Amino acid sequence: MKSNRKYYLAIDLGASSGRAIVGYENKGKICCEEIHRFHNVMIDGPDGLVWDYDAIFNEVKTGIKKAFAQYQITSISIDTWGVDYVLMNHDEIIRPFFAYRNIRTNDVVDKVHSIIPFEELYKKTGIQFASFNTIYQLYDDYLKGRLDTATDMLMVPQYFSYLLTGIKSYEYTECSTGGFVNCVTKQFDEDIINALHFDFLKGKRISQPGEILGELIPAMQKELGGNAKVILCASHDTASAFESLDTPDDALILSSGTWSLLGAKIKEPNTSIKSYEANFTNEGGVGYIRYLKNIPGMWIPNSIFRKKNVSISKFDSYLYSSVYKETFDVNDPSLVAPKDMEKAVLKLLKHNPPKTDVSLLVSIYNSLALCYKNNIEIIENNLNKKFHELYIIGGGAKNAYLNERVKELVNIKVIPMPIEATSIGNIKIQIKSNL
């Protein structure tokens, strides 16, 4: 074992990879050590895109075992991507585990909006329109009869916490992404729940980050070789990432990973007509609202070059010499879940397609930078406020070419923060809960 200081375990599960990070406080700073990492992908099966949560949980357990073997762990907390969930009939799991990029909701959106117009949904929840939002996934479940026996719906981080503790819970930042939490009360919106027949959510209480769930159940203690408290962090990964930074009021934050989440911390939700028309989202934070635009970030190049079995970093030294200038709309619906991402991008560049992989990557980065620029202008207009700094966190903070393109396009100070932002935010909440 290491020294007598307190150690905390952050399980950070993204839509592309998962990690177990041990953190501790040293002279006011949070230090992190990655002890386990694994690849995470959606599976294209008979039901479309699904997750293998059994395999993911096995990796989670491996990470906890490694942590217990090396440290005296005080507490554990789990964060994941948003909108996805697991249906349960008491303690029985209802399968399959649909993934948010599954196209099953395409025919459901109009049906939901015929019951509750999106403008009304937006006023209640402040959440952007996206066809994969939990509200549309759940309504598809209702229409298919999957809710007939459902007694619970646990968002992904709370499902894994339940497997560890036996305690079911609902956490604000994660639930807020789904489109059915009232942005004022911070609880499930009763009108939405009643109108869409989500009866199993009636009476369910949404907890704020920092709540202690309990210790590991005896079977888990035996299997994993130790015991610790399990705490609800800001369990949506972007919420934890935002919590890692103490930024000035005139700063924007760009969480750059599979998704690019661009926005600011604001005190109250902004559900104005301008925000509605620009499809900005008001997601839950720790005592604030994360006013954001969701942009398809590294999902685009990663999808292309993973299929080619080529590391993107291979092209870093060649990007600056490229003279290719064509860009495309990174928010084009054809890029949500294409069978072949490269073909989908090339179709958008058909008038002057790139001839090399370097030119293709340059086009993607330039298109992302242009999208950031346009949305920064919209944020400033919607909030009637000028921002002077842009903090970039997540894997994209290390992307020097993309960061320079943003700096060139936007009159703003760009501050890359190549830190373990999500894990730091996760661990910060654990530390406060253990005081």
Poorly predicted spans: none
Quantity of strands, as a count: 17
Structural class estimated from helices and strands: alpha+beta
Provide the helix percentage: 25-40%
Beginning-to-end CA distance, first to last residue: 22 Å
Portion in beta strands: 15-25%
Radius of gyration: 21 Å
Strand order of the largest sheet: 3-2-1-6-11-10
Q: Determine the number of helices (DSSP H or I, runs of at least 4 residues).
A: 15
Query: Main sheet, how many strands, which sense, barrel?
Result: 6 strands, mixed
Mean of all residue-level pLDDT scores: 95
Chain-wise SSE layout:
Layout: E1 7-13, E2 17-26, E3 29-39, E4 43-45, E5 48-50, H1 53-70, E6 73-80, E7 85-89, E8 92-94, H2 109-115, H3 118-125, H4 134-143, E9 152-155, H5 156-165, H6 172-175, H7 190-195, E10 212-215, H8 218-224, E11 229-231, H9 237-243, E12 251-256, E13 260-266, H10 273-278, E14 281-284, E15 289-295, H11 299-307, H12 341-348, H13 357-383, E16 389-393, H14 400-409, E17 413-416, H15 421-433
Parallel strand pairs: 1-6, 6-11, 12-16, 16-17
Antiparallel strand pairs: 1-2, 2-3, 4-5, 7-8, 7-9, 10-11, 12-13, 13-15, 14-15
